[in-house]
Design goal:
Elements: H1 3-9, H2 33-43, E1 55-59, H3 65-82, E2 87-93, H4 100-111, H5 126-140, E3 143-149, H6 158-164, E4 174-181, H7 192-198, E5 201-205, H8 210-224, H9 234-244, H10 249-265, H11 273-293, H12 297-315, H13 324-337, H14 345-357, E6 361-367, E7 373-379, H15 382-390, E8 399-402, E9 405-408
Parallel strand pairs: 1-4, 1-5, 2-3, 3-4
Antiparallel strand pairs: 6-7, 8-9
Helix pairs in contact: 2-3, 4-5, 8-9, 8-10, 9-10, 10-11, 11-15, 12-13, 12-15
This protein binds a DNA duplex through α4, α14, β6 and β7.
DNA sequence: CTTCCACAGGAAGGTCTGGCGG
DNA sequence: CCGCCAGACCTTCCTGTGGAAG
């Protein structure tokens, strides 16, 4: 059987799939011309060997913050090479690199060329790492622009404090910082000194509206897909759906790409609205499935406890929402069944908040007056969560064999 | 108006792991 | 090998609180 032969003969709808991926940065960013110019003006002094102002950039996800910064950054490096002013442009995502130590370590390692001088990711005292970083930068004698994406994910403001006053410790090199955040309230909690230093320049990226999203999609679709494969209403629909979710361009591009992939798999000649809706559903379920699978054991037990309580409520025709106390009781029972020591209620409270932030459950704080203050807990997609948990081997003792399938007890 | 429930969630500290230099 | 370090993950102890009931 020529499995791949058959698949390969199937006509692809794509010219270049990459163009629709979130990591792709096009050379032209529609509706961000003003932001690009503004940022370029701020960076300009770097080309004269001077230190650009620090910048703080706000904006929700998918508003083009990262794309604009990376685009302007790469143009800056290019121009720097031409004019013989070498510039270090360091991009760090603080969601991945989220502590003082790792931040310094990461910056230093991006500046180091040789493998063996690299700084280990644990073991050294933090100030030692800082000293080494200083040495490295002073040796290079360059202007370095350090981009801290998702800066609000950074734990503690010590790291920002260190970086923002680093210029005082450097004799030959210069540092300027670009902070990117989608949390508008982020600076409120910062040390005032850091706040004023980081906020020398401020930029706000507003969400795209449906029309702007359409322009973006059209531009990308032209490069990514073969001509004529999109039904007329597909792009407006993707744009409208994404606009509903606070104008997230990343979401819009994902929708279009996945819709096209689904259509291709069906061997369809054209991408239609139906594919887009299917894509949206798929994105939601994939997200939940991915997160639930990788959850630590106690969070899984907790989810199972919520699932089971909800089912019980449903069969009794009662109100679906649960409280922390109820969930905790069921959770403790389940732990007993598995002969596992349950976590404290305090800890479980934190786990519940985490699940809420991940979008697996909704947990709103409500007051029931005389009957206390608690969280109102609900699963966001019980069918999908149940499907994942039923196939989880670590929860086996809590599941029951019935016919061919594992069922919840 | 006050009371008081059932927690929320802050602070501080303990334990364990992986990985470093010496 | 040891001693040290940062960070993940928990516990203990604690103070704070929205709003129905009294």
């Amino acid at each position: 059987m020529d499995i791949f032969g058959t698949l390969m003969r199937r006509e692809s709808l794509f010219l270049n799939r990459e163009v629709l991926r979130p990591s792709y940065i096009p050379d032209v960013l529609p509706h961000r011309e003003r932001e690009i110019t503004h940022l370029a003006e701020i960076f300009l002094p770097a080309l004269k060997g001077e230190q650009p102002s620090n910048v703080f950039i706000y904006g929700k996800t998918g508003t083009g913050k990262t794309a604009v910064v990376k685009l302007v950054g790469s143009k800056l490096i290019e121009k720097g090479r031409e004019t013989n002013h070498l510039i270090d442009f360091i991009y760090i995502n603080c969601e991945v690199v989220d502590t003082h130590y790792r931040l310094l370590q990461n910056i230093a390692n991006q500046l180091i060329n040789s493998w063996k001088d690299r700084i280990p990711f644990t073991g050294l005292p933090t100030d030692e790492v800082y000293l080494r970083l200083r040495e490295i930068m002073d040796e290079k004698k360059r202007v370095a622009i350090i981009v801290l994406d998702e800066i609000d994910k950074l734990k503690g403001d010590e790291a920002l404090y260190t970086l923002s006053r680093m210029n005082g410790d450097l004799s030959n090199a210069k540092v300027s910082l670009v902070g990117i955040s989608n949390d508008l309230k982020f600076t409120e909690f910062l040390d005032p000194r850091v706040k004023s230093s980081l906020g020398e320049e401020n930029m706000v990226f507003y969400p795209y509206n449906a029309q702007e999203l359409q322009d973006i999609l059209e531009q990308r679709a032209k490069a990514a897909l073969k001509p004529g494969v999109l039904s007329d209403s597909v792009i407006p629909l993707c744009a409208a759906l994404a606009a509903r979710e606070h104008g997230d361009a990343r979401r819009a591009l994902d929708l279009l790409r996945i819709a096209a992939e689904l259509a291709e798999r069906e061997n369809a000649k054209k991408v239609t609205d139906r594919h887009v809706r299917k894509a949206m559903h798929k994105i939601e379920l994939d997200h939940i499935a991915e997160v639930v699978k990788t959850l630590p054991l106690h969070s899984k037990i907790l989810l199972l406890a919520i699932l089971r309580e909800e089912k019980k409520r449903k069969s009794m025709g009662m109100n679906l929402s649960l409280t922390t106390g109820e969930v905790y009781d069921t959770y403790c029972n389940m732990c007993k069944k598995m002969s596992i020591e349950p976590l404290t209620q305090r800890r479980v409270g934190d786990l519940i908040s985490e699940l809420d932030m991940l979008g697996i459950i909704t947990a709103r704080v409500i007051s029931k007056g005389r009957y206390g203050r608690t969280r109102e807990i609900r699963l966001s997609s019980s069918a999908e969560i149940q499907r994942i948990l039923q196939n989880d081997s670590s929860l086996r003792p809590l599941l029951l064999y019935r016919g061919e399938q594992m069922k919840l007890i």
